[in-house]
Amino acid sequence: MAQLDVQAKLAILADAAKYDASCASSGTAKRNSRGGKGVGSSEGMGICHAYAPDGRCISLLKILLTNSCIFDCAYCINRKSSNVRRARFTAQEVVRLTLEFYKRNYIEGLFLSSGIIRSSNYTMEQIVEVARSLREDHDFRGYIHLKTIPDADPELVRQAGLHANRVSINVELPTTSGLTRLAPEKDVRQIEGAMREMKASIADADDAAKRFKSAPKFAPAGQSTQMIVGADAASDADIVRRSSSLYDRFGLRRVYYSAFSPIPDASAVLPLKRPPLMREHRLYQSDWLMRFYGFTSAEVRSATDAQGMLPLDIDPKLAWALKFRDGFPVDVNRAPKEMLLRIPGLGTKAVDRIMSSRRWRKLRLDDVARLTLSIAKVRPFITTLDWRPTFLTDRTDLRMLVAPRQQQLELFTA
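and the corresponding structure tokens:
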């Protein structure tokens, strides 16, 4: 491997990290201070923007330790047989980069993943060393997210949890058959075993923290995973079922979905086109329904078509409501919160405001309209003091009335 300076390595390994969906970059104008004019930059290599549960935007240095890999997963741009430019950071180079970016107020933390070099244990040792050095040698108190390697020694994975705020163990693909076909060197039993051990370690740490003030923290932001959508034949129903199982069995904080992107010199077993990005969006919406709206996996899957796919033109909650109209309309002045959350067009904040407002007076349609972006979407599914949808809920063309209007964008519109 040719000798590269740190900036060249950063350009390669920051770009290689973009396929991880665990933190999403927000759009921004490309401005920088190169040339001696101005101060700062909005397009620093490797800086991505993630969002905390309370809505704060957190800037992270998102890089790979290396994009070299001994595995040959068909869907991965960094697979062993891929013809890409390779680079590798040392552990101390990552530490220095993180500290220098942090001191300049570019970032608030580090997101570190890696290809596998030499062995899983060797690579995991390097990842852990980065986090250990930041925490113990430099007293770094920013956010750290580490991608761990499932078949590494469990003690190494445990050490990652001692230093990181969050750890990720990727399931890669939604089905066992897909993983066997496209990544035969990876074993679903090892992946799930690592998740199970991580869940147990987090639970033990939480229990210790309740009894001892001096108990060390262990992955306080929990564990997450990522799966690729569209690389195999898995349907949306398969993905929703798998996600629900992962949440229930391993106590995950998040399941991230990443639409498969065709790669250079791809294997013949991969699709030639990427799936619609809207499919990824609908899966995130279905994930939200299970996590925040009280829907079960079976209920979300019931909104799919005969092929197990969620509709792309309407969101999953609306698709479910149109299939099960016998539960509507809902009286917003009397229905329990669990039923209000199932009304298309009402989010969690709108439902909380309805619950609060109706304690003082009966709500009218105008009151509900002030709490939602699209009262036209809500009207067929509710009753208020002054509104009854009568036969609107049962109309055969209701989907056309409530679905978002499709608009053809003009190429040369300013």
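(Above: one complete record from the training split.) The CA atoms of residues 208 and 255 lie 27 Å apart.
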